[in-house]
Design brief:
single chain, 231 residues, alpha/beta, TIM Barrel, 8-stranded parallel β-barrel, 10 helices, 48% helix, globular
């Protein structure tokens, strides 16, 4: 659904705060900005989850830690330990990176067993599981198989690199069960609106402020152009 208010766009933006070189002060500043803008979520490094949760308490903004980021190549036991530790700390949504190495090696049973355990742990804790595909490195057949595996294992959200061809391939497979997030961060308002119009439920950004400032200006301009009706 195309947004028509400031909030309806802000609540579909997920701000990614995953730069490995950021200090805690920089993460705090980014969280403060996210609170002021009213975005849907911040996606954070595992080491920042507890502090970000304190900084964003009672804001309505989801704090989404990652597990297995950025390449998803840790052993399953290590990825599940990381995910379950984040759930223990109170995470209500976790982003898990799918292993492209396993997909490219066609080790599909391994991938399915991993996602099944991850989804089960999340749902038992009352949390959502987002699975991040490094889909730019996967062929269409592997994307289809990974999506079907995600659906069978009751993953909640797929985060994908994006593109018209990929979207056309994926949408028929979702079966109104899986939601799509555009994982490649957009940088301007037109990109954001185009992604939402195309069918992504949420979209990644690294800096929400210029997008939402442009959106606010556009809404104000539209309001000025509305015809005045006489009583």
């Amino acid at each position: 659904m195309t947004p028509d208010t400031y909030e309806s766009l802000a609540k579909r933006l997920d701000v990614r705060l995953l730069d490995p070189w950021w200090s805690a002060d920089q993460v705090f500043e980014a969280c403060s900005t996210a609170r002021a803008l009213g975005v849907r979520a911040v996606v954070v490094r595992p080491c920042d989850f507890e502090l970000a949760g304190q900084w964003l308490a009672n804001s309505g903004i989801a704090v989404v830690p990652t597990a297995g980021y950025p390449h998803g190549v840790s052993n399953t036991s290590a990825k599940l330990y990381e995910l379950r530790d984040l759930l223990r700390l109170g995470a209500k949504e976790v982003e898990l990176t799918l292993s492209p190495a396993r997909m490219l090696s066609r080790q599909f049973q391994h991938v399915e067993a991993e996602l099944m355990q991850a989804a089960k742990s999340c749902h038992e804790a009352g949390a959502r599981l987002t699975v991040l595909y490094n889909s730019a490195h996967m062929g269409d057949d592997q994307k289809i198989i990974a999506t079907k595996i995600s659906r069978r294992t009751e993953v909640d959200v797929l985060a994908m690199d994006g593109g018209d061809a990929e979207l056309a391939l994926m949408q028929p497979l979702l079966k109104e069960v899986l939601q799509l997030r555009l994982a490649t961060p957009v940088t301007d308002l037109d990109q954001a609106l185009a992604a939402l119009e195309a069918g992504y439920e949420t979209i990644a950004v690294t800096d929400a402020a210029p997008i939402l400032e442009a959106w606010k200006s556009r809404l104000e301009q539209q309001e000025k152009q509305q015809p005045v009706t006489s009583l």
